[in-house]
Amino acid sequence: MRTLTLTRPDDWHIHLRDGDYLCQTVKDVARQFGRAIVMPNLSPPVSTVADAAAYRGRILDCVPSGDAFEPLMTLYLTPGTTIDDIAAASSADFVAGCKLYPAGATTNSDAGVSAITDLYPIFEAMQKGQLPLLIHGEVTDPTVDIFDREARFIDESLDPIRRQFPELKIVFEHITTREAVDYVRGQSPHLAATITAHHLLYDRTDMLGSGMKPILFCLPILKRDSHQRALIDAATSGDPSFFLGTDSAPHPRSKKENACGCAAGCYTAHAGIELYAEVFDAAGHLDRLEAFASHFGPDFYGMARNQSQITLVEEPWTAPQTLPFGNEQLMPLRGGEVIRWQMMQTPVAPS
Ligand code: DOR
Ligand code: ZN
Questions:
Q1: Global model pTM greater than 0.85
Q2: At CA 334, angle to CA 60 and CA 101, rounded to 5?
Q3: Which is the most buried residue in 41, 243, 253, 259, by most CB within 10 A?
Q4: Would you call 18 helix, strand, or coil by DSSP?
């Protein structure tokens, strides 16, 4: 039986939600990951340091005893974000960056910005304060085909931002296209990209080819298989410009399987590292998983790598079909199906 021991990984992009949902998501992420960048798209959004401090406290209250999990908070950039908000974020050690959502691009993005250039004074302050900018990179023009929205964003918004702010650290989040891979390749330490497990494992035919599968609907939407292959090549290449960000994004089953529209988001926190292990193993590059999952993220953000380790074992298991989610049900990715790798449980030391 093959095993793989690696530095404890971090998740550089996750949605934990709040309220009744929070303790399920935190339990899952804290089991595997040392740290996670927590997305701010609550409703209302986490847009000030005070909001982030309060949310962080609620997250820490959910961390199971025995897990040492550190939430890294982000602020949601809105048209009302001020230079003072950025100064406060730069000096708050628990704030790791600010998230740009083009208004209307995805779940809870209504508070985002319509004219990205209006945020240039804010980007200037972020560059000065060395605060990374995390970007949901899709244009929102409804006349642009949904499969083209990421590629168009590169030319229309991302490249102009980079030219204007060459010292600003930017993470192009959850990339899904060959164009994004080509744009990001070799650009660390100023530009990097996260890649999700679901965009590595699936393409649009998996989602649409034999009836619409709501469980695979996310944004940016899954693309054709040639893009999936480009993502696999990038993730497993050993280029430090690409690192792990699950974009695990839970929605109750009633909102995913809904005749009036399907909420975008895939829940992968129950098996995050195991799903990536499958991809790296299938690509013949299991030896590169540790760098992607545990080294390149902290290196980019200027943080220390984790000290502890986890061990994965090639022992197939069946993921639960449903998980509790407040008073509702959550359908995790691969629920009821076999996942080839699993993380060995480390016994909690008696107190
Ligand atoms: O699929 C997605 N779900 N993409 C996002 O950008 C947001 C996320 C969510 O919050 O549900
Ligand atoms: Zn996300």
A1: yes
A2: 55
A3: 243
A4: coil
Cα dist from 176 to 22, 76, 160, 181, 248, whole Å: 27, 22, 20, 8, 15
Active site residue 203: no
What does the CA dihedral 7, 29, 227, 142 come to, rounded to 10 degrees?
A: -150
* 55-98: pLDDT as tens digits: 999 999 999 998 899 999 999 999 999 999 999 999 999 999 99
Give the pocket of ligand 1 (CB within 6 Å): 15, 41, 106-108, 136, 218-219, 249, 264-265
Triad 335, 278, 225: Cα angle to 5°: 90
Closest CA to 256 of 216, 221, 227: 216
Ligand 1, atom 3, residue with closest C-alpha: 265
The token duo for 64 is 């199971």
Question: In sequence order, which residues have a C-beta less than 8 Å from that of residue 71 and are 6 or more positions away?
Answer: 16, 35, 36, 38, 56, 59, 60, 94
List 203, 239, 247, 281, catalytic entry: 247
